[in-house]
Amino acid sequence: MIATPSIQLHRASWSELSLDEFYEIARLRYAVFALEQRVDDEDLDGRDDLPDTEHWWFSKPDTAVVCYLRVLRPADDERQPVGVPAAAWVIGRMATAQHARGQGLAHDLLEAVLMRRPEQPFLLHAQLHARGLYERLGFV
Prior knowledge:
Elements: E1 8-12, H1 19-36, E2 54-60, E3 64-72, E4 89-96, H2 105-116, E5 122-124, H3 131-136
Parallel strand pairs: 4-5
Antiparallel strand pairs: 1-2, 2-3, 3-4
């Protein structure tokens, strides 16, 4: 996993996030999902501040948050794939700053999350264009 003085891994619950950290996270999510990808789904869906939600990100001192994802418990009405164990956790809102892509950050961030809970099933909310990344980490 990437871990250098210039790239730092972070994990925090809502109550542990500073305003500056959440601002940088929201800024990255907006840049990637709204401006770049033109996703029209609501990003701030009321689940960022749930007690079990974890925010994971890589940051660089000079560029703030460069890669992010969140991990949360499935919603009561969460659609789950048929024929596999029900997910204990959902990974979503994966975003990497455009200038930081191609460096393995998304892979390393996902790997860190999966290593923290190796025996628990995950459901992934993701876009198809990133399918190869997720398949390399065992998602189907």
